[in-house]
TrEMBL record:
<comment type="subunit">
    <text>Component of the accessory SecA2/SecY2 protein translocase complex required to export cell wall proteins. May form heterotrimers with SecE and SecG subunits.</text>
</comment>
<feature type="transmembrane region" description="Helical">
    <location>
        <begin position="133"/>
        <end position="154"/>
    </location>
</feature>
<feature type="transmembrane region" description="Helical">
    <location>
        <begin position="368"/>
        <end position="388"/>
    </location>
</feature>
<dbReference type="InterPro" id="IPR023201">
    <property type="entry name" value="SecY_dom_sf"/>
</dbReference>
<feature type="transmembrane region" description="Helical">
    <location>
        <begin position="282"/>
        <end position="303"/>
    </location>
</feature>
<comment type="similarity">
    <text>Belongs to the SecY/SEC61-alpha family. SecY2 subfamily.</text>
</comment>
<feature type="transmembrane region" description="Helical">
    <location>
        <begin position="109"/>
        <end position="127"/>
    </location>
</feature>
<keyword id="KW-0653">Protein transport</keyword>
<keyword id="KW-1003">Cell membrane</keyword>
<keyword id="KW-1133">Transmembrane helix</keyword>
<feature type="transmembrane region" description="Helical">
    <location>
        <begin position="339"/>
        <end position="362"/>
    </location>
</feature>
<keyword id="KW-0472">Membrane</keyword>
<feature type="transmembrane region" description="Helical">
    <location>
        <begin position="244"/>
        <end position="267"/>
    </location>
</feature>
<protein>
    <recommendedName>
        <fullName>Accessory Sec system protein translocase subunit SecY2</fullName>
    </recommendedName>
</protein>
<keyword id="KW-0813">Transport</keyword>
<keyword id="KW-0811">Translocation</keyword>
<feature type="transmembrane region" description="Helical">
    <location>
        <begin position="21"/>
        <end position="43"/>
    </location>
</feature>
Length: 405
């Protein structure tokens, strides 16, 4: 083991990867420090925060159990990016004409609006009525929004100089959430129940890995490939959206819930919204619909059959029996919709369906929430592993590509 480690450390083509990993570790240290800096006393705050709220916020690098510098997490930013991209999906040609500055302005504008809503929602749970409430709320929102922007900047820096962008921050947040929930709740179950939960979790994890690794292939004719033995094909993953749909669906659900609750507070001065709670079937159903919709549209966005059809038209490649242009676009769009539909259904079954079991078997709700967090952790870890593999692959041939690029 020692010899293998020494060999890896001496491999010059992996030095860039080591620098990226070290940079990511430094950002993780900053995140841990910032997530433990409390900016508001929560001693008299809301102790009955929904368990799903903790999971949803943790899936975006945030924390609602305490008001810290990074409590908002990356939720406002990733949700804003999703909104901008889905709006642009209606007119891809217009998106191509937009400059980077224009896209960033739209993303930052949406991010600021969502951050203000979430900051007010979070502080409203902890800041009681009093003479200094307005000042405390104003200063608290300012610090929370600044902390969220700092975390977004760290995620951007990690994308450029580290590994996997915002994903390591999310992984650290989920691990912290799991540790906090286990520390607060003593779980005592029979050994047979633990074995059953472990078997179901293992089955779901294996199924998730298979779906993540599997791909759908569409054969086509490459005019530059004259070999009869080697067939060219389009390789589309069965789950193109990856873990992004799961992460953003939870953040978007929390934002929608926050907006509805804030509207009710302003109109009726009441804060209770039971039907959007995960102890209510309607709340779970709303989340399931949201999860499916995001998984479906994100998959379509990632596959982008229209751009693939345009590339075929430019290169001269074609699918046998399908005319180039509109017919190829229609054919690829039909295939992309089928893949996206499959992706949405499987994600809802694996991640969303277990939430209904918390209603059927409320005694096991804590264990089910724990299992969902572990599944999310596995899923995001798969994506991080893929990023590291790609980095190792490109580093191995970096000298060759630099020579001829």
């Amino acid at each position: 083991m020692k010899n293998i480690l020494n060999l890896l450390l001496r491999r010059t083509e992996y030095k860039s990867l080591y620098r990226r990993i070290f940079y990511t570790l430094m950002i993780m240290v900053i995140y841990i420090i910032g997530s433990n800096i409390e900016i508001l006393s929560t001693a008299n705050g809301n102790k009955n925060i929904d368990a799903f709220s903790n999971i949803g916020v943790a899936a975006m690098g945030g924390n609602f159990t305490a008001v810290t510098l990074f409590s908002l997490g990356l939720g406002p930013y990733l949700t804003a990016m999703l909104i901008v991209n889905l709006l642009a999906l209606r007119n891809p040609e217009k998106l191509m004409l937009q400059t980077k500055k224009e896209r960033q302005f739209k993303e930052k504008a949406f991010t600021m609006i969502l951050a203000i809503v979430q900051a007010y929602y979070l502080l409203n749970m902890y800041v009681k009525h009093g003479d200094n409430r307005i000042h405390i709320m104003a200063m608290g929102m300012l610090v929370l929004i600044a902390g969220s922007m700092l975390l977004i900047w760290l995620a951007d820096q990690n994308t450029m100089y580290g590994i996997a962008g915002p994903m390591p921050i999310v992984v650290m947040s989920i691990i912290k959430s799991i540790m906090q929930s286990n520390a607060q709740n003593d779980i005592h179950l029979k050994i047979i129940v633990w074995i059953a939960i472990a078997c179901i979790l293992l089955f779901c994890a294996v199924l998730l890995i298979i779906i993540e690794r599997a791909e759908y292939r569409i054969d086509y004719r490459d005019i530059l490939n004259t070999s009869k033995d080697k067939q060219s094909f389009i390789a589309w993953k069965l789950n193109p959206g990856g873990s992004l749909a799961i992460m953003i669906s939870m953040s978007l659900f929390m934002i929608i819930k926050a907006i509805i609750e804030l509207c009710i507070i302003l109109i009726t001065q009441k804060q209770v919204l039971t039907w959007m709670d995960f102890k209510h079937p309607l709340g779970i159903t709303v989340y399931m619909i949201l999860l499916f919709s995001l998984a479906y549209f994100l998959s379509l966005l990632m596959l982008n059959p229209k751009r693939k059809a345009t590339d075929f038209l430019k290169s001269g490649n074609y699918i046998e029996g399908i005319h180039p242009g509109k017919q190829t676009e229609s054919y690829l769009t039909h295939k992309a919709r089928k893949i996206s539909l499959f992706s949405g259904i499987m994600i809802v079954i694996i991640i969303g369906l277990p939430f209904y079991f918390t209603l059927i078997i409320p005694v096991l709700s804590k264990e089910i929430y724990l299992a969902i967090q572990i599944l999310m952790l596995i899923y995001i870890s798969i994506n991080i592993t893929d990023v590291i593999k790609n980095e190792m692959y490109f580093n191995r041939y970096k000298n060759f590509m630099n020579k001829y690029w």
